[in-house]
Amino acid sequence: MPTTAQFVYWAHDLDKPEVIARILQAENRHRVMIFCRTKRSAQRLSDDLEERGFAATSIHGDLNQVARERALKRFRDEGSIDVLVATDVAARGIDVEGVTHVINYECPEDEKTYIHRIGRTGRAGASGIAVTFVDWADQTRWKVINNGLGLPFEQPEETYSTSAHLYHDMGIDPSAKGRIVPPKDDGGHSSKSSDRERRPRGDRSDRPRADRSGSDKAGSERTGTERPRSERPRNRKRLRNGQPVAETGRTDTGLAAAPVSTAPSATTDPDSETSAPRRRRRRSRGSADAAGAATSPTDSASTE
């Protein structure tokens, strides 16, 4: 490709959109085609460039035929779009004139794909620029492409969006930034939250404690103070086998210990009212008949 200037940069994946935003502000830039490996990366990059203020669109396999033709018409015929992000499958058969820059967002699969991509620029004697990004994981793949085509880029130069050689190679204004429009304001929520000063939380000990009852909670919210707890004597009694037992050494604050009745002794009369009633043992009818039959001969003998 004698009319196409080729550049290969060793770029980080997170910094690639920033680098592309600088390249799109290069001098003598007209139409640009950016090739991505996956449909998701193509759509994500197109949305990112559009948010930065560039007239970009994408074509990939997730779009139907009508959407593809509409995007291609805006890029090729109408001129309202000058940045087209596409995958290799969706870009087959696309012949567009006036493409000055071709960018390989990821390293191509092989040398044939590389030649097919950069062949979209520098046609009919016009000059063009082809830029290829090589990530850390694509070094081996790029060495195969470089050696197969005999290119002088065996070791690409590490490049970032602030690298001086990037501005020099692409003819970018040193004052260029990563966007040409200010970021969109989401209804003023972000600006208000950033300008709002964070209030000090202060000491939590002076905050009113919430009461379990609804009336106390409502009253504390209105007055902003905590209602004092009422000092009430404890009426709890300790029970053992259903009977209260005496507690020694435990008294409430400021209150004398209440006399507690002791449990009845084991010699309590079973016929007394305070004793628990004895449970009668229930016998079945069959056992009662057998017991009666066993005692009947003795009773008859005594009567005789």
Explain what the structure shows.
It is a single chain. The strands form two sheets. The chain has a seven-stranded parallel β-sheet, with helices on both faces. A two-stranded antiparallel sheet has the order 8-9. It is built from nine helices and nine strands. It is an alpha/beta fold and 304 residues long. The chain is elongated, with a radius of gyration of 46 Å. Helices cover 32% and strands 13% of the residues. The chain has a domain of 167 residues: P-loop containing nucleotide triphosphate hydrolases (Rossmann fold). The longest helix has 19 residues. The C terminus is likely disordered.
Summed over residues and divided by their number, the pLDDT gives a mean of: 78
CATH level-1 class of one domain: Alpha Beta
Tell me the CATH architecture of one domain.
3-Layer(aba) Sandwich
- Poorly predicted ranges (pLDDT <50, ≥5 residues)? 188-199, 251-258, 260-268, 295-304
Q: What is the tally of beta strands?
A: 9
- CATH fold-level label of one domain: Rossmann fold
Provide a count of the helices: 9
Question: What amount of the residues lies in strands?
Answer: 5-15%
CATH H-level superfamily of one domain: P-loop containing nucleotide triphosphate hydrolases
Shape annotation: elongated
Q: Could you tell me the radius of gyration in angstroms?
A: 46 Å
Tell me the span between the first and last alpha carbons: 142 Å
Largest sheet: 7 strands, parallel
Strand order of the largest sheet: 3-4-2-5-6-1-7
Order of helices and strands: EHEHEHEEHEHEHHHEEH
What class would the helix/strand composition place it in?
alpha/beta
Helix content: 25-40%
